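Appendix B, example 12.
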Amino acid sequence: MRSVSLLFCHDHRFFVAADGRIYSYGQYDITILNRYVEIFGDVTIAARGVALDEKADLSRYSLCSSENISFLWMPNLSSLRGLTVDRSAARRLLVEAVTHADVVIARLPSEIGLMALGTARNLGKPAGAEVVACVWDGLRSHGGLLSRLYAPLAYMRMRRAVATAGWAHYVTQHFLQARYPSTGKTLAASDVDLPEPDENILSRRLARISAAGPVTFGMIAALFHKEKGIDVAIKAFARARSERPDIRLKVLGPGDSAPWRKLARELGVEESVEFCGSLPRGEAVLKWIDGIDVYVQASFQEGLPRALMEAMSRACPALASSAGGTAELVEAECLHRPGDRKTLAQQMISACDIGWLHHSAARNFAVSGTYSSKRLREFQVEFWRKIMSSP
């Protein structure tokens, strides 16, 4: 297979260490990025780059530097300045990058991705979209006034970008396809990197449940985003704790926990809520999930939630909002409307039942097996390799 130059574009924020190495937390590590290297050869990532704090604990970050991966640092286009003052400079950077690339792929929602797809269309370059979330849900649910006003335009821009891209990889089976239909070639497959099912995982989970200790709820969310519903989870937890005073809540994710600690203190549950900081993707996160009893996904915006799928792969019972394609993973009785803390609180109380815990653990583990990395990786490799032979 001949080597192809890929330009991969999105709004993710990477961190640049003093020695020049590139790190990330949450969404990417070198394993995921090397998937594109395997398919295309050389990969340039157009994204945002910020200096990494010299005091940062590198064990909590994922290394993204690689011989075949380079980075093009873009201005933050997801801001008023980015949509106005910095737009011309960003366009010039992308015109040059797209001109030298063989293929362009944009992860959406993304302002950088939208601009890259438009540039590729103008220059006649093969282009595809990874459709991973709904921009309307994100901007309308947790943004300020300007975000809410921009939501209709952003929604229409993303619909047009997906419709006119020659290739579209959806992480859902139905939800995002309905919101952002494509006229090109499509693939429906999660982008989550799950290990092959191991029955020992389920056995250990069932043994933990049978030990019948106090139930610990857990969620994974960046603390600087409101879209994951951290406030909803804490408020629901406080309500549930009035009936189940022994339950606990753990939150894993980067960012300043002070505002959330303040909320927990005001609700009288500060001593029962633990903020665990961040961990690098992979084994460290999976081990953390093994230490909780019920995973909570209280998001306002989702595609197919990565952390929820990872929790399910550890046979972890789960409660989730109905945002995005989450209903494709979780049973209806385990869902709540985004923001509905009253329903979530009642579900938390019910989740302390050992019978439900056993049922949910076995059911979630079985569902996660259909999303194993080996199966999905084969679909993705075959799909994206075809773009290289497109006219």
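DSSP finds 15 helices and 15 strands in the chain. The chain has two domains: 4-193+373-389, 199-369.
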